[in-house]
Amino acid sequence: MNKKDLTWNMEQYQKAGLGGLEITPIYGVYGFEKEFITFLSPEWMQMFDYTLAEGKRLNLGIDLANGTGWPFGGPWVKDEDASKTVFFKTYAVEGGAQLNENISYDQQALVRTANNKPVAVDTLLKPVAENKNLQALALDQIKYPGRLPLQLLMAYSDKGESIDLTKNVDQSGKLNWTAPQGKWTLYALFMGLHGKMVERAAPGGEGYAIDHFSANAVKNYFKKFDEAFVKHDISSLRSFFNDSYEVDDARGQSNWTPGFFEEFKKRRGYELKDHLAALFQKDNAEKNVRVIYDYRATIDELLLEHFTEAWKKWGASKSALVRNQSHGSPANTLDLYAAVDIPETEGNDILRFKFATSASNVTGKKLTSSESATWLNEHFLSSWGDVKKCVDLFFLGGVNHVFYHGVAYSPKDAPWPGWLFYAAVHFQETNPQWKDFPKLNEYIARAQSFLQTGRPDNDVLLYYPIVDRYSQPGADLLQHFDGMERNFEGTDFEHVSKWMLENGYAFDFFSDRQLQKFTVANKKIVTGGNSYQVILLPANKFIPEASMQKLIQLAKAGATILYYKQLPVEVPGFRDYENRTRQLNSLISGLKFVEEGKTRKSKVGNGSFCVAENIQDLLASATVRKEDFSFEGLQFSRRKNEDGTFYFLNNRSDKPYNGWLTLQTNAASVALFSPMTGKKGLANSKKASNGSIAVQLQLQPSESIIVKTYQAKKTGATYPYIQLGEQATELNSNWSIEFLSGGPELPSKVISTNIGSWTALNGEAVKNFSGTAKYSTSFQKPGNAVGWLLDLGEVHETAEVYLNGKKLATLIGPSFQVEIPAADMKESNTLEIIVANLMANRIAYMDKNNLPWKIFYNTNMPARKRENIKNGLFDASSWQPLPSGLIGPVRLIPIRSY
């Protein structure tokens, strides 16, 4: 990196409409080793100072990842602070006998790399940070061979006795002990390094991942930053960032930490070492379930307290926010998200997003961010229209603070395609669509200007039944939580969530910890600044008795508590569980249910409990709002402020929508705001039969609209709806195609009788070309109208539209339409459409001709799809030319009226 190119990059992104940048250092580029800057070195800090200063000059917010790549780790993480794994072995001894084999565990060597290049462990120095070529090695996980230290040796008799024999084992592993009468089973525990390395590490950032469960490890990790920040003003830094947990995307699990037995006893109230058979699922089924729950609950608390809350406190000491991707953690992600300032999600599933957005909504946070468009498709195959659809899904899931992942530093003079991020959407100046990137950013900024105001307007609080999952036995000690996948697929929790999402109910998840802070006001459940109509439990089997007590307390204060199918019947955990179960049953037996239609209700104080087999009947019994337009192909997120309610609406279908939509809110006026076009105005609206408001909408496929309702009557300009005529004029002849910029070779200008993909023209240059081309034609005014809708039909991939030299619009798709006012239409007209295609055709040309562009250390461009892998890397040499340019048909449709 150098200052000149850094400034150029930052200025380009600022001009394109970005509001800020995140610094996440990753691996370097071959041939530029002299510009490598060791992470957190004095030289690195000078560049960081320069970046902060340039950020202030350009009004760009700057966030910093607390590490390079991910997860947190580095060369200063010593063995004692690195992630750990526990192993066990069992031995059998008869009474009166001694064990005739040594107590030992020999770890086998393991080396995994991110670049698919094999490395022999005996060629690596120990400790791993001593290796001088770590960038080229691209280590992902390493376990050195050798004997692991014994942590604990416990003996259990067939009569229920237990003895700690750890001190009876000498240095050679020999056990000096004669078994008393009976049959004895010995459990030996050994602790070793998990070996997970920082993925995608930058120079100076290569090393072990930290032990997230250790307070000392976390404290020592951040000392490195404290030392680096001395005498540097970082006050303009907006936020620190963590790119997800991701410690266990390796062989084995990071499932132990020194001092775990002490932490367990302090938190669970009994000695885990007396119950190792149950921990490793070798005892009776009942005990196995309860002890594994306690183990996982302890890991949960350690990750929350020792890492997440400690990191948040450390960030606050630097006057910075903390932004965290909690998904993938072996803990309650709702609580981890809630512990930071800005929860961040990723992916392509609304129910996955809802874990981060629910944590924000329930605890009253203003922002929920998203790692957006990381892997939409294979490399070079995503358009801005694809990104727009991806971002819309985040908005529908409650996200209101978008981050792209794919924005990379690249020198101005770097050969095409420049320095690329390893993931698949490339948001940089070498992308032919770059000229239209500001339009995408303008769209997002307009939408976020609404979504970052007010408060969420959701009605249902859905209980997150993680206690059921913690109580689920399995082959692994830990489970990792990332949306519904793996952990909740096929469960009632998933079913209820999907059903409500698909049927127009607005809801958030909540945790047991969050439940303890809930109150009731005017029969509404009040959380951290937001209020909800009902609490819903999704047929979970287990519930902590404290949670059940709190639910009864809330009901007495006026809350409505809904149970799908059944009430929970058991408390989790092992300590005194029989007595605690009796307490739970006593609480439940105090509820006197009576049949009311299709539900069973129990009046409790000023509120009630309600149970039903059918989720629709259950929600109807509490008159929970249902937006009745999901069947129309429209989806929504809903917020409110003092003067009304506003909706982000998106047409997820492939058909236009033109009709009246009833909103489940009372209003005197409704306004519409188009974040893509900037059109706005008071909507056509009318009172619905149930007292709600109905609004007229016109939406193209994938189009979005902000619908704002007002309690008071508003006056002003009306929204410009259009009525189209039936006779369209097709512009299908005398087109010229002039290539403006791109490569590898600029094709010659072509005059064609028809429009279409430029790859269908003669010659190889057009088939290999990625860049921009101008399609031009002339036409006579097609009659008289108040205006015309210009429909470009199919476009690959973005278009700027000019009529008679005047720019009408930038169109990024998926729909390519623009209105032409009558005043802009002359008797004779010239239409010019500048189209940008994907990077794909030029990349395919380079791979077919073995031209170097994969120039990166570590992961040198991984493929997303198996069919695009050659020699372990992404390769496009087999690709055929993709459609590019203006495909059409191009039509002018008269507008009869506005």
What does this protein structure show overall?
The structure is a single chain. By secondary structure, the protein is an alpha+beta fold. Among the domains are: 456-621, 3-Layer(aba) Sandwich (Rossmann fold); 630-720, Sandwich (Immunoglobulin-like), CATH 2.60.40.1180; 729-838 and 882-897, Galactose-binding domain-like (Jelly Rolls, Sandwich). The protein is 23% helix and 27% strand. The strands form 13 sheets. Strands 1-2-13-14-15-16-17 form a seven-stranded parallel sheet. It has a seven-stranded mixed sheet with strand order 20-19-24-25-28-27-26, with helices on both faces. Helix 1 runs parallel beside helix 2 (42-58) and helix 5 (260-268) crosses helix 7. The chain is globular and about 110 Å long. The chain starts with a helix and ends with a strand.
Brief write-up:
With 898 residues, this protein is α+β, with helices and mostly antiparallel strands. 23% of the residues lie in helices and 27% in strands.
